[in-house]
Amino acid sequence: MLKTRYLTVILLLTTSLLAKDIIVTNTKVLLGDNKAPFYFPSYTVDGKSIMLTQNAYSGLWMLDRTSEELRKVTDSQGAGFEPRSLIDGTVIYRRDEYQKGRKFTSLYKYTSNGEQLIADPARLVSPANVVDDRLIYLIDEVPVILNASSAQREINLEDYTTVLNDKLTLKLFQSGEPSVIAPQGEGNYIWSELSPTLDKLVYTKTGVGTFVSDLDGNIISDLGIVHAPHWSPDGEYLVYMKDLDDGVQYTESEIWIVSFDGEHSWKITDTPERIEMYPQWAPDGKHVIYHSLLGDIIETTLEIVE
Question: pLDDT tens, 134-152?
Answer without folding.
Answer: 999 999 988 999 999 899 9
